[in-house]
Structures are given as structure tokens and as C-alpha cells.
Recover the amino acids of this structure.
């Protein structure tokens, strides 16, 4: 797994690629949190459209980052256009907690 | 049911091995010509079972995880994930959605629910102090080529 961080007028966009499992969740947790808590960030968009694999450890990872953002009074939303990942997220019921959009433009508006 | 093919894999309970385990199982199942969705569902279920062994069964220790794959007649796949860790006190409770013994560690508590959703049948046997065995079954849908059903291409069975 790797990721790209883009800052756009107070919004931090984190684009994740590859496989999000327990191994990668452990590797990237701190790096994500450090970016999320940064003072210039007001809103966080995590784009998981290019994930090729995700299991429930990945759900735990996303919920964890959502909680970090919330603890610092920041909004965190997801972007996902992958039908399989969307189906997986629905199975885990993540939409009840985190807002999800299909495109980055929708998430930013 | 007659076993047509099988495999066995032994890995140490390191999270680096999660990807290896699910990819190895996917490669084994590929001989049944599953759809991409079917392969991903099996990979996800394997990842959940192996992660449970790493995180819950062995916790801070490194132990052994054995993954067995069997292909039966009629496109039935069985995947068995066994560990020799601390075991599960209450299997029924552990299988409930959102149940987790580690709420502080970002566990979603959805591992067994995911396995049950993506596989046709999941059996869990566990003994405290001895370990846990998860057996998962899935029937791969028969693919059709030019309207003709593809026969399962394994001559004979294996006595095992």
C-alpha cells in the first residue's frame, strides 16, 4: 500500500492505493494521524477508490482515522468509486458512521 | 464428497504473511475458473481468519498458522485456517457482528461477519488454551463457455 497526500485550501486529500489489511494499517496509522491533526487541515478526504483489497482491519483503520479527526473537531469523509470496496464497506456498515461519496468533487462541494 | 485436489500451507503468525496467505489461496482456487468477485470474496475471508489468528490467538507471540485448501466435486472449495493460540471462550459471542475483545485497538469486530457473508458456510471450533479452527466452504458458480457448461477438469479423486 502507498498513499499520496494533497492539500487543497484547508482540505487534506489522502489517496490510498494497493491493499489495506492489518499489516498496512499498522504501518500507516501514525503517518495518517500526524497529517490529519496538522493545524492547517480543516477537512479530510480519504480516497479509497484505488484500493485493490480491503478487509475488516481496513475498516478498523478508517474508523480509527475518523475518530482522530473527530477528536480534533475536523470532518472526515470517504471517496470510493470501486463497486467491490463499496459492497465491502456496506457489509461492515461503515456508512452509518462516515459519509461516503463517489467522486472527490462531490466530497469537496 | 470426493476430494479432487488439496493443498496445505504453514506460516508464522506475522501480519506480513496475511497477503501471502490470501494470494496463495486465490492461486489454488483459480483452477476452478472463479469470477474476480468470487476470488476476492475468498481472499477477504482468508485474510479475516488469518488476521484473527495473528491478532487474537497469538497476540504478542509468534505462533504457527496452518491453512488447508480442498477442492471437492461440484466446484466446492473448503478453506481451513488453524492456529494453536489461546482459543475463543465463547464462539457464538465472537461471531456476533461488532463484537470485539479489543475495542481500543481499532478492531471492527466484523471478521466473522465478513467470513459468513462472503462464504457459503463457516464452522468454528475452538478450545481455550489449545487453539481455533475455522472451516469455510464456498461453491464456485459453474462458468459457461459459448453456452456450454465447463466440466470440472480433474480426472478421478484423491484418497485422503
Amino acid at each position: 500500500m502507498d498513499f499520496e497526500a494533497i492539500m487543497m485550501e484547508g482540505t487534506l486529500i489522502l489517496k490510498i492505493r494497493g491493499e489495506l489489511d492489518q499489516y498496512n494499517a499498522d504501518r500507516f496509522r501514525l503517518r495518517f494521524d500526524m497529517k490529519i491533526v496538522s493545524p492547517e487541515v480543516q477537512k479530510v478526504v480519504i480516497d479509497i477508490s484505488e484500493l485493490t483489497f480491503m478487509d475488516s482491519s481496513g475498516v478498523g483503520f478508517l474508523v480509527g482515522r475518523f475518530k482522530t479527526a473527530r477528536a480534533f473537531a475536523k470532518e472526515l469523509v470517504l471517496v470510493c468509486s470501486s463497486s467491490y470496496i463499496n459492497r465491502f464497506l456496506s457489509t461492515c456498515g461503515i456508512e452509518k458512521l462516515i459519509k461516503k461519496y463517489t467522486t472527490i468533487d462531490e466530497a469537496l462541494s | 464428497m470426493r476430494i479432487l485436489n488439496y493443498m496445505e500451507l504453514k506460516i508464522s503468525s506475522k501480519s506480513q504473511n496475511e497477503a501471502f496467505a490470501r494470494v496463495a489461496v486465490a492461486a489454488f482456487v483459480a483452477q476452478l475458473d472463479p469470477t474476480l468477485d468470487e476470488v476476492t470474496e475468498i481472499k477477504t475471508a482468508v485474510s479475516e481468519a488469518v488476521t484473527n489468528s495473528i491478532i487474537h490467538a497469538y497476540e504478542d507471540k509468534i505462533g504457527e498458522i496452518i491453512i488447508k485448501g480442498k477442492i471437492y466435486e461440484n466446484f466446492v472449495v473448503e478453506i481451513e485456517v488453524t492456529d494453536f493460540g489461546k482459543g475463543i471462550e465463547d464462539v457464538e459471542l465472537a461471531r456476533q457482528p461488532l463484537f470485539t475483545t479489543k475495542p481500543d485497538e481499532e478492531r471492527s469486530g466484523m471478521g466473522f461477519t465478513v467470513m459468513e457473508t462472503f462464504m457459503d458456510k463457516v464452522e468454528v471450533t475452538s478450545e481455550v488454551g489449545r487453539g481455533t479452527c475455522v472451516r469455510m466452504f464456498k461453491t464456485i458458480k459453474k462458468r459457461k463457455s459459448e453456452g456450454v457448461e465447463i466440466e470440472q477438469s480433474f480426472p478421478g479423486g484423491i484418497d485422503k
The first strand of chain B starts at residue 3 and ends at 12. Chain B touches chain A at residues 15-16, 18-19, 22, 37, 40, 43-44, 47-48, 51, 54-55, 97, 105-111, 113-114, 117 (CB under 8 Å).
